[in-house]
Write a structure and sequence with these properties.
The complex is a heterodimer.
Chain A lengths: L10 H6 L7 E2 L2 E2 L1 E2 L10 H13 L10 H20 L8 E4 L2 H15 L6 E5 L8 H10 L2 E5 L9 H8 L4 E7 L11 H10 L3 E5 L3 H4 L4 H4 L3 E5 L10 E5 L1 H6 L10 E4 L4 E3 L13 H17 L1 H20 L4 E4 L8 E6 L4 H10 L2 E2 L1 E3 L4 H7 L4 E5 L6 H18 L1
Parallel strand pairs in A: 3-15, 5-6, 5-7, 7-8, 8-9
Antiparallel strand pairs in A: 1-2, 4-10, 9-10, 11-12, 13-14, 14-17, 16-17
Helix pairs in contact in A: 2-11, 3-11, 4-5, 12-15
Chain B lengths: L10 H8 L12 E7 L4 E10 L2 E10 L2 H14 L4 H17 L22 H15 L4 E3 L2
Parallel strand pairs in B: 1-4
Antiparallel strand pairs in B: 1-2, 2-3
The chains are: A alpha/beta, B alpha+beta.
Chain lengths: 413, 146
């Protein structure tokens, strides 16, 4: 497919970096519009992981031999990569986790039970992924923490006045809100959310699972207390993600899991913990995945967030224009600041039937509740279909989606 | 464009999916059960009225895709007059047909649903109403899609 859109991004060259994009699905060119669920991997990520397995692999942090030392360097380099990516002050602020879900569970467990006091409250929003809902329900039930839900407007934006009202009694210890909705595509006004939280004495976590893919993150400029993201949506492998946290918070938090790699010393009477961040990283880490994520971060950095954000904005504008021209199609969310995730429903056709018909033409979209059942209820639907974009998505792919949806509608009416 | 999908979306399925004949709560019923597919959000509640040992009427309320609604509707037509033992046999046969695609001569009215076997993620759409019916007949209120 031809490159168009913005001069900063050579789409044809980028597409050539992703081997899977030349696959055929059901005899058709793959049109992959499900990157918000998990993105495809560029050759450099695949090669980095294969290279480690073929040439330079041993366990990390413990061997005194050449292979272990080299592997430790290669693996630990991802901590520097993440530090750069989100502009953390230094590498000691980065806890490596399995994914965003584990990062948020770590905060709910260690900060929630270890630092927060019963009677305090946590605020989330009405458009959270289950990963930013369920850990807080578990904290509520185990530790006597109240859970408050900040509503959203009909446009799919956070209701800032209602949000602020939830904090006014100063019982809220932590706000945890998505930085970009995985259903509506809405970017939340992070700076203002964090500022308000701090005004009322609360800490603030952003779920950056979607946002880090499209926009430059600066945790210091945001002054955010916790930031969670996952590697596999950022063109890296599965099984690796990260939690950024302010140093004093990490120091105050007890570890969630015990085991090797997280200790300073162990005896049967007592054990002491390793320094931050290692006290949160029990057991052999995801070594190969760390090496792969590091390659993905360097790949994204080489393209640059200015070009990535401009491409996403152009794709989103084109998708909204094309899809809104389809009769009987409803787009969910009309936020002012929104990105490359578009959820929709087609009159007379269930989202799963839509997805099956699109799949037959090689078009991959997600259909269902998108791990956000409370948001579905707020929208008054059981499920939606969702098209989501990555750096390799083209305008032509969006045209193919729109043309095929027109035919899907005809099929069901 | 979607000609090769006619195996799955046969006219009878589109028709029953769009205008189910039995898509209603029965005014009088002896048993009911919910079926829930948490992965996709499909939900169905099946209502059953007996007469002696056989089923006299089945109705359902469903939110879901064309496949699940058509399957519930065709099931409601197929099970009237059957005993619990016969329905247990039909359920097993239906699940087998949905998984393998091999048409079952004992289930003539349900053969249009055999096409789902080519779509592993959609098989549960077709079997969910049967799981709910089985739960209702067993006196359980809830079935899972498993």
């Amino acid at each position: 497919m031809n490159a168009i859109t913005n001069p900063g991004l050579d789409i044809a060259r980028i597409r050539a970096d992703f081997p899977i994009l030349s696959e055929k699905v059901r005899g058709k060119d793959l049109v992959f519009l499900d990157s918000a669920a998990s993105a495809q991997k560029p050759r450099v990520v695949i090669d980095a992981m294969v290279h480690a397995m073929e040439h330079q692999y041993a366990n990390v942090h413990r061997g005194l031999h050449w292979m272990s030392e080299r592997t430790t360097e290669a693996y630990e380099d991802v901590r520097d990569g993440i530090t750069r990516l989100i502009n953390a002050p230094d590498r000691h602020h980065i806890v490596i986790t399995r994914n965003s879900t584990e990062a948020m569970n770590l905060v709910a467990f260690s900060y929630g039970r270890g630092v927060m006091k019963p009677g305090q409250a946590v605020v989330i929003s009405a458009m959270e992924h289950h990963a930013n809902i369920v850990p807080w329900q578990m904290l509520r039930d185990a530790h006597g923490i109240e859970l408050r839900i900040a509503p959203i407007t009909d446009a799919g934006e956070l209701d800032m006045a209602a949000y602020e009202a939830l904090l006014q009694d100063r019982k809220v210890g932590l706000v945890s809100i998505t930085h970009m909705s995985n259903v509506l595509g809405t970017y939340t006004p992070a700076e203002r959310i964090i500022q308000v939280a701090h005004e009322y004495g609360a800490r603030c976590m952003l779920d950056g699972s979607q946002s880090v893919v499209h926009r430059r993150i600066d945790v210091q400029a945001l002054d955010v207390d916790f930031f969670a993201f996952t590697g596999h949506k950022l063109y890296g492998p599965t099984g690796i993600g990260a939690l950024y946290a302010k140093r004093e918070l990490l120091e105050a938090m007890p570890p969630m899991m015990g085991g090797g790699d997280m200790i300073s010393s162990v005896s049967f009477e007592r054990s002491t913990w390793a320094q931050v961040p290692h006290k949160f990283e029990a057991g052999t880490p995801a070594i190969l995945e760390g090496i792969g994520l590091n390659a993905a971060i360097k790949y994204v950095e080489a393209i640059g967030y200015d070009a990535i954000a401009a491409h996403e904005a152009a794709l989103t504008e084109h998708a909204l224009a094309r899809l809104s021209g389809i009769e009987g199609l409803t787009i969910y969310g009309s936020g002012q600041d929104r990105g490359g995730v578009v959820s929709f429903a087609l009159e007379g056709a269930h989202a799963h039937d839509v997805a099956t018909l699109l799949d037959r033409q090689g078009i991959a979209v997600r259909a269902g509740h998108h791990c956000a059942e409370p948001l579905m209820r707020r929208l008054g639907v059981d499920s939606t279909a969702r098209a989501s974009f990555g750096i390799y998505t083209t305008m032509e792919e969006i045209d193919v989606l729109a043309e095929t949806l027109d035919r899907v509608r005809a099929f069901f009416t | 464009m979607f000609e090769d999908l006619r195996d799955l979306y046969q006219e009878v399925i589109l028709d029953h999916g769009r205008k189910p004949r039995h898509g209603r709560r029965l005014a009088v019923f002896d048993a009911e059960a919910k079926g829930d597919n948490p992965m996709c959000g499909d939900r169905v509640t099946v209502f059953v009225r007996h007469e002696d040992a056989a089923i006299a009427d089945v109705g359902f309320e469903a939110r879901g895709c064309a496949i699940s609604i058509a399957s519930a509707d065709l099931m409601a037509e197929a099970v009237v007059g059957k005993t619990a033992g016969e329905i247990a046999d039909m359920t097993e046969r239906f699940v087998q047909m949905a998984r393998t695609g091999a048409p079952d001569d004992e289930l003539p009215g349900l053969r249009p649903l055999a096409g789902v076997h080519e779509y592993p993620s959609r098989i549960k759409c077709a079997t969910l109403p049967w799981m709910a019916l089985r739960a209702a007949l067993a006196g359980k209120g809830v079935a899972s899609s498993e």
